[in-house]
Amino acid sequence: MNEPRLNQGPTDEQRRRIRRNAVVLGLLALGIYVAFIASGVLGLRG
Amino acid sequence: MSATQTHGHAADHHDDHGPAKGITRWLTTTNHKDIGTMYLVFSLVMFLIGGAMALVIRAELFVPGMQLVDPGFFNTMTTVHALIMVFGAVMPATVGLANWMIPLQIGAPDMALPRMNNFSFWLLVAAFSLLILSLFMPGGGPASGWTLYPPLVLQTGDALPLAIFAIHLAGASSIMGAINIIVTIMNLRAPGMTLLKMPLFPWTWLITAYLLIAVMPVFAGAVTMLLTDHFFGTTFFAAAGGGDPVLYQHIFWFFGHPEVYIMILPAFGIVSEIIPTFSRKPLFGYDAMVYATASIAFLSFIVWAHHMFTVGMPLAGEMFFMLSTMLIAVPTGVKVFNWTATMWKGSLSFETPMLFALAFLFLFTIGGFSGLMMAIAPVDFQYHDTYFIVAHFHYVLVPGAVFAIMAAVYYWMPKWTGHMYDTKLANIHFWMSAIFVNVLFFPQHFLGLAGMPRRIPDYSTQFADWNMVSSIGAFGFGLSQLLFVYIIWKCAKGGQKVSAEVWDGARVHGLEWTVPSPAPYHTFDEAPVVK
């Protein structure tokens, strides 16, 4: 951690983490979208 | 951030290839600096278009009576002006600043998802092309206010599906941008840069990005339900079919209030960068600033119904939303006092970014105080839907968010272009903006207190004088921004060369001041190490 390290873009491990984080966040956004519409549908039925 | 230092030659490594030539560079670029520039130019264009719409509104209101436009078009102007300013000008400007500065400030070579970065920008262009095209649809553009309340919005003609599709595209673009910012900050910080060593601008953007992911889908859900109510026979918001128009208001403001903080938190980050630099002191209470930002973001989720006190809600509900709203003043106060304490006994100088940051501090606080006044439910019954509200949110968003963005442009533009801007013209721009913004918006407090409703093209003669003053301020403010465009153009073309540090002593405040000016096309190919 004390020496400057050559940055050839993210490492494989970083790439995996980036992909995983992005997918989780995307699914979270999609889930919120669906949940709010579902709450509207349930409200209408109730 | 004062603890941040770099080793060796980490910062100024030059890459072996530059940008592509011609239009291809801009269409296909995945470089964070190019995409940041495109966002900033786009937001400036939208700022001018949205500003022109504001001038149509103020020209119509210059004197009582119907003067220039018909009432339907006036309503379209108030609606589209707001949509453009919120989603097309302020948000993309802060995204542009994030694209340019976050990798530079955290020592990353680029954003973590560069192709998605390009896609989210061009999606935004498509969204606003559609929104502007909706003005030319049969029946006119959307005219129900930016809140798109049903049942009024369902009377919109063919423009409605176009506007709703535009909102979906802009929302998808924002969510992708937010994901990119989060994964960049969480995964690509330079070795040694712990979260609590990170500068305030990336911090505020990290929290903003989470807010975006939480609330943009809510707005998308609300407008999807509007769409199905209009075209597919559902009755989510139609009382006749068992639905409830007030449900829309709840959903909208569950998005809408955090949206205000999506616009203002990055502004807080900008001001937290500028004030220490021109006070030649580290930021006072760094940790408290981070926690205050997070507290404001959390509180923004539990105050939404203060926008709708007059719909009729239980007393307990009014009490809850009144008190939770007032609670926001505590972390906001922490911020205002910490900025003030940063300046205390500092070696202050008043370059243009500092002038805009100071104006932000005073004028945003005025907007905050009028917000506190409206948080008091019984008092809000008087203010609701009057020009007092218009004055309040414009104080928060214009001398608040917009002034902070202008401060950021003056602060970082020498780093982007390698040239100092014309300081004399920039100071003239500041003083004209600061004077005219108050001439424009302060009288609107008086109009609102006297009872003038918002979103009307004509008014009683008792409101004539202050409306005229406000319109004069609007045209003065609009003209001042043409000067801003000229200053940016002049600085991009040339000017006095600047050093890597640009501002005296700035190096200790962030990694961006360790790279040459202009910042090379590729930076931090060698990761800096932060102590």
Task: Kindly list the characteristics that best describe this protein.
heterodimer; A: 46 residues; mainly alpha; 1 helix; 74% helix; 4% strand; rod-shaped; disordered N terminus; B: 531 residues; Cytochrome C Oxidase, Chain A; 66% helix; globular
Task: Give the SSE map.
The complex is a heterodimer of chains A (46) and B (531).
Chain A: E1 5-6, H1 12-45
Chain B: H1 22-28, H2 32-60, H3 71-106, H4 114-133, H5 159-187, H6 200-231, H7 245-279, H8 286-299, H9 315-327, H10 329-343, H11 352-375, H12 377-383, H13 387-417, H14 423-449, H15 464-493, E1 526-527
Task: Write up what this structure looks like.
The complex is a heterodimer of chains A (46) and B (531). Chain A has 46 residues and is mainly alpha-helical. Chain A has one domain (12-46). Helices cover 74% and strands 4% of the residues of chain A. Chain A has one helix at residues 12-45, and one strand at residues 5-6. Chain B has one domain (22-514): Cytochrome c oxidase-like, subunit I domain (Cytochrome C Oxidase, Chain A, Up-down Bundle), CATH 1.20.210.10. Chain B has 15 helices and one strand. In chain B, helix 4 (114-133) runs antiparallel to helix 5 (159-187) and helix 14 packs antiparallel against helix 15. The radius of gyration of chain B is 23 Å and the shape is globular. Residues 1-15 of chain B have low confidence and may be disordered. Chain A binds chain B through residues 1-10, 14, 17-18, 21-22, 25-26, 28-30, 32-37, 40-41, 43-44, and chain B through 7-10, 109-110, 112-113, 116, 175, 178-180, 182-183, 186-188, 191-192, 213-214, 216-218, 220-222, 224-225, 234-236, 241-244, 247, 251, 524-529. Strand 1 of chain A pairs antiparallel with strand 1 of chain B.
